[in-house]
User: Fold this.
Amino acid sequence: MANTIKCTSSLECIPATGTYGKLPKHGGEQTISQVTAGVSCPQLVTSTTSAAITFPGLTAPRWVRFENIDTTNSIQIGPYVAAAFHPMAELKPGESFPCPIWPTVVLHAKATAGTPKLNCQGLET
Assistant:
């Protein structure tokens, strides 16, 4: 069997009241060939100063999964551009998400408060 990456996701909004329509559930499953076997799972303790997210042992991470394992504080994820942090996502406590990334872009993590921990999984393709 070839090395593969399987990503399954869905998004659904169900309002508590009927004043606006329910958004339809969107989701899908994607299977990607994984040419290079390699998984890296560093845990990063974040702070209000951003830190680079690295994947020791991986040459070019292509898929990542982030998980905020804190119970109180949020974590922002994004690149540094022109010496400034640009958050592209914010993980609230307990949230996680997978996403494809460009292998040459170094992402950073920054806590909105406190020192929450971020689990990361990186995969090469």
